[in-house]
Design a protein that fits this description.
The complex is a heterodimer of chains A (419) and B (518).
Chain A: H1 2-9, E1 31-32, E2 38-41, E3 44-48, H2 61-74, E4 87-88, H3 89-102, E5 106-110, H4 113-124, E6 130-134, H5 139-148, E7 151-155, H6 160-176, H7 178-183, E8 186-191, H8 203-213, E9 216-220, H9 235-239, E10 248-252, E11 262-266, H10 268-277, H11 279-282, H12 289-304, H13 307-322, E12 329-332, E13 339-344, H14 351-367, E14 370-371, E15 373-374, E16 389-393, H15 400-418
Parallel strand pairs in A: 3-14, 6-7, 6-8, 8-9, 9-10
Antiparallel strand pairs in A: 1-2, 2-3, 5-11, 10-11, 12-13, 13-16, 15-16
Helix pairs in contact in A: 2-12, 3-12, 4-5, 6-8, 13-15, 14-15
Chain B: E1 2-5, E2 15-18, H1 24-49, H2 77-83, E3 93-94, E4 101-108, E5 117-128, H3 143-155, H4 170-183, E6 187-191, H5 194-205, E7 211-215, H6 220-229, E8 232-236, H7 241-254, E9 266-271, H8 283-293, E10 296-300, H9 315-319, E11 328-332, E12 342-346, H10 348-357, H11 359-363, H12 369-383, H13 390-412, E13 418-419, E14 424-428, H14 432-444, E15 447-448, E16 450-452, E17 463-467, H15 474-491
Parallel strand pairs in B: 5-15, 7-8, 7-9, 9-10, 10-11
Antiparallel strand pairs in B: 1-2, 2-13, 4-5, 6-12, 11-12, 14-17, 16-17
Helix pairs in contact in B: 1-2, 3-12, 4-12, 5-6, 7-8, 12-13, 13-15, 14-15
The chains are: A alpha/beta (419), B alpha/beta (518).
């Protein structure tokens, strides 16, 4: 009767809206062969300034042979989550090595870099808890916060005064309702080196705020692990802070360690909880052993050659200086950050046009032998969408000539496209 | 409840699924068992608080003692008092390839499972009934491993970039075309982690104003993906088509809860094989409903791809249906292909949309090349394109192993859940003490099994779960069955009140079995 009519009449939306053929994110660059220092993109050989291979370990023979040995012993996959015969001795060894390297009690490994922080945050922060997070936090952190259902309070990027204001407001709230305040957990989530802006976070001030307002700190070190600090231990070594002051450090192994996956490290009191309540850990297959063996070998190399960090930093400073003063483009990021952004000095008004302009700059460089890429974001999903930019990544393998060539090529490209 | 269904010609073969009811005495005893454990738990907590007993847990730092406590005391009650007692049944470390037989590192605990020490000895050749190795591709020798080895030396282990930036290798393109061909769909896209495939793509497909109808027993990744999308979620009873139809009717007729506006889209989330129950989704009926009510179907074939169907192409192949009827076919490469990662297959518009708007394409590193090569070689093997019949033989072997194993267990008198053709075999234990005992006894007899309890299953329905593999030979299965029989007698696990009459000879054939009631 009526119901049948309603069912007949109802028309759903199509499952997915059509995507225009020239959408910038639809046509991927095809890389033939390994994405190492010299990379073949869309058939053209270029110098790689786009892969996060900071320490050049992607093509390292020792790392590859360690992975080969593991492949011959274990095969490729682990065929099970950690709880059900998916724990291999390589995983246990990697966790021990990471904990020793970072000088913490314990470490836990995830099989996917994105899932690391996205599973760690909801394991501790639940509905009703409060999280203060920087505006420029990366997408994985945003998803972790969304999954946790906690109250999110954003503070302006690297603005400690804004954060203190929010903390004070929270304190006055607490005094109105002390019973609730006693059970509401508070966290600050920051990144060591921000992926979206290339800045460093002011960790010493954060520690002071931590003890003053009794908030716990979660630090995401994907870019700074293996980059900052005299031994590559990250931002805590860079600032000389006691690592126990940070409650949880999470990083992914896909940048400096040139492997796949991620890890969290900290005190056993904190890390052990994730073994039962980290969703990406309990309900997902463990990391393939060959990738874990590659990570262990990469750690060995990092421990044996602490001077590569100094070399990397010198190269970053060099290119940072060389890229200053390009007409139309400004450099965004610290001088020692290996992942910089080049943004348009003046936006044309519409994001689409900016993206098109930058694409022309990138294409110019690619045609002349430097592989670059634009930083990709999901425009509708990000909380605070960064402006369009070109990502420049510095690795230890790039020679000074190549750095200079890249800088001059970018100057040329900017001149021809933007003027 | 025993369903043998030939529902109006929708099913081409009998659909035999059984979930025998818990015997009343067993249920009562299980509750009593949990009650006793809870009492003891309170007693021990009391003693720990008053320092009569030593507290073994890690504790908060001195400097942070006045912070708000990180964990509620009650949250960890279950962990401290029940899980700790039988913790040695999980997280067992192995040190060889997870094939049909596996080597395990021996560990002992001198303080009732609070800490473990490794004795250094390795227990060799344990029959592995716990790893998801359905087609036996977890191998350290053979065509797959050699191909992966070559790619590893050429490409390296990592990729260091996302798909949309510089991480899209030619290997990824090759893999996606192959997977699309294997599934019989227009196009496919591969991701680095099966869990993340669900949790990152469901939010890209549906959003606020859409409705998700999800099965009761869906996996955590589907639940997380549904939550993150922001759509309204309604749950229908497990594999129950009447419940699903009612929800669909109500949804279309009444619209959104407060505004009464019509829903934008309706998405049905089901799995191919449910790994805790061993049941197979009633796909012909779901597709019929989906067409009638114009909704979309998202099928998660994590366990069923490779494991079901005469040519190993999953639950769609098993029922003989058209893959184009399923809007979104999702699956993982971890189980039947011996690698890691997940995929989504479907129409070209869908995959183009996902390439642009999926969270994983924009922010997550792409798959590692040797893993991709392993998948390519194993898919070619299953399809028979590598020139051998190994793939076909393995699919057959798995089907035979499944039927044999299930049949023998039912004859012995255990309560087995799930569909006759599912290679996931849950054997009911019920009582908390038997969970630990079963795991330990089987390990003593050199068989590795997986036991699961609360919270992965309802509180009284704890079970042992066997995952059959094409790599298991008949001898291994017979050994395992003998030991299970022994342990079953020892622990009194033979609860079933309806035994099958044992066949005098057990040929491996395609006939269905007749049920004889006691």
């Amino acid at each position: 009767q009526e119901k049948e009519e309603l069912i007949e009449e109802w028309q759903p939306e199509p499952l997915v809206p059509p995507v225009p053929k020239d959408h910038p994110a639809l046509n991927y660059n095809i890389v033939s062969g390994p994405p190492t220092h010299i990379i073949t993109v869309n058939g053209k050989e270029c110098i790689n300034f786009a892969s996060f291979n900071f320490l050049g370990l992607l093509n390292n023979e020792k790392v590859k042979s360690a992975a080969q040995a593991s492949l011959k012993k274990y095969g490729v996959g682990t065929c099970g989550p950690r709880g059900f015969y998916g724990t291999f001795d390589v995983h246990l060894e990697l966790e021990e090595r990471l904990a020793k390297f970072m000088r913490t009690e314990e470490a836990i490994i995830y099989s996917y870099g994105f899932a690391t922080i996205a599973s760690a945050i909801p394991a501790y922060s639940k509905r009703g808890d409060i999280v203060f997070v920087d505006e420029a936090a990366c997408f994985a952190i945003q998803k972790g916060l969304q999954a946790s259902r906690s109250n999110i309070k954003l503070f302006k990027h690297n603005d400690m005064a804004d954060l203190e204001r929010l903390l004070k407001e929270q304190e006055t709230e607490d005094q109105k309702n002390p019973r609730k305040a006693r059970v509401t957990r508070r966290f600050i989530v920051v990144e060591g080196l921000y992926m979206n802006t290339g800045d460093i976070c002011p960790l010493p001030e954060l520690i002071k705020l931590k003890y003053k307002y009794k908030v716990r700190i979660f630090l995401e070190e994907s870019l700074s692990f293996g980059v900052l600090g005299p031994h590559g231990r990250g931002i805590t070594e860079h600032f000389g802070i006691n690592i126990d002051d940070i409650d949880l450090i999470s990083a992914n192994m896909e940048n400096s360690l040139a492997s796949i996956g991620g890890f969290c490290c900290g005190r056993s009191f904190i890390i052990d909880h994730q073994r039962l309540s980290g969703q990406g850990y309990c309900f997902s297959a463990s990391l393939p052993p060959l990738l874990a063996a590659a990570a262990i070998e990469a750690l060995n190399i990092m421990e044996d050659n602490p001077d590569i960090f100094q070399t990397l930093r010198a190269k970053c400073e060099r290119i940072h200086k060389a890229l200053q003063g390009i007409s139309g483009l400004k450099v965004v990021g610290e001088s020692f950050s290996p992942a910089l952004h080049l943004q348009l000095k003046e936006s044309s008004g519409s994001r689409e046009n900016d993206v098109k302009l930058l694409k022309r700059v990138v294409d110019y460089c690619m045609n002349s032998g430097i592989a670059l890429t634009q930083a990709r974001y999901l425009e509708k999903e990000e909380k605070c969408l960064p402006p369009p930019s070109i990502r420049v990544v510095i690795t230890v393998e790039q020679t000074e000539q190549e750095l200079d060539k890249a800088a001059s090529l970018l100057k040329e490209a900017a001149q021809s496209v933007l003027n | 409840i025993n369903h043998i269904v030939h529902n109006g010609g929708l099913y081409k073969r009998p659909f035999n699924e059984a979930f025998e009811e818990t015997p009343m005495l067993v249920a009562v005893l299980t509750y009593v068992g949990y009650g006793v454990l809870t009492l003891f738990g309170y007693l021990r907590d009391f003693m720990r608080q008053w320092k009569i007993e030593k507290c073994q847990n890690a504790t908060e730092r001195e400097e942070q003692k006045d912070f708000v406590p990180l964990y509620q005391d009650f949250e960890n009650f279950y962990n401290r008092n029940l899980y700790m007692r039988i913790r040695d049944s999980w997280n067992r470390p192995i040190c060889s390839v997870p094939g049909a037989k596996v080597d395990m590192m021996e560990r002992v605990s001198h303080d009732y499972n609070w800490t473990f020490t490794y004795t250094g000895r390795v227990i060799k050749d344990i029959i592995n009934m716990g790893s998801y190795n359905y087609l036996g591709f977890a191998q350290k020798t053979g065509a797959c491993q050699e191909a992966a080895s070559k790619v590893l030396s050429q490409y390296g282990a990592g990729v260091c970039s996302t798909r949309q930036e510089m991480g899209n290798l030619d290997k990824h393109e090759e893999l996606e075309k192959l997977v699309a061909r294997f599934l019989g769909v227009e196009s496919a896209m591969a991701y680095g982690m099966g869990f993340a495939t669900n949790s990152m793509n469901i939010p890209a497909l549906v959003g606020k104003g859409c409705l998700i109808l999800s099965d009761e027993l869906n996996h955590a990744s589907l639940v997380l993906g549904a939550r993150l999308s922001g759509a309204t979620i309604r749950i229908f009873k497990h594999n129950n088509m009447q419940s699903l139809e009612k929800l669909l009717k109500d949804a279309i007729v009444h619209g959104q809860p407060r505004t009464r506006r019509p829903w934008k889209k309706i998405l049905i989330l089901v799995e191919g094989i449910y790994s805790m129950e061993g049941s197979i989704v009633r796909l012909p009926e779901v597709i019929a409903l989906k067409k009638k009510y114009k909704s979309y179907l998202y099928l998660d074939e994590a366990h069923s791809i490779g494991a079901l169907g005469p040519s190993g192409r999953g639950v769609v192949d098993y029922f003989g249906l058209n893959p184009e009827d399923v809007d979104v076919m999702m699956g993982t490469f971890t189980k039947s292909f011996g690698a890691a990662g997940g995929y989504i297959g479907g129409k070209k518009e869908l995959i183009d949309y996902l390439r642009t708007y999926s969270h994983s394409a924009a922010y997550a590193t792409s798959m590692s090349p040797p893993v991709v090569e392993q998948i390519i070689t194993s898919v070619k093997c299953i399809m028979g394109e590598d020139g051998t019949t190994i793939g076909e033989a393995r699919v057959q072997q798995l089907a035979e192993n499944t039927r044999y194993f299930r049949r023998r267990l039912k004859e012995m008198g255990f309560i087995i859940y799930g569909n006759e053709d599912s290679p996931v075999v849950p054997l009911m234990l019920y009582m908390p003490a038997k969970i630990g005992a079963f795991g330990r006894e089987m390990l003593k007899r050199n068989i590795g099994v997986v036991v699961v309890g609360f919270p992965a299953t309802p509180i009284i329905e704890s079970r042992a779960r066997f995952c059959l593999s094409a790599a298991h030979t008949k001898e291994m299965l017979d050994t395992a069955l003998k030991e299970i029989n022994e342990v079953g007698d020892l622990l009194q696990l033979k609860y079933s009140r309806r035994r099958l009459v044992p066949l005098l000879d057990r040929p491996f054939d395609e006939t269905t079995y007749e049920e004889t009631e006691d």
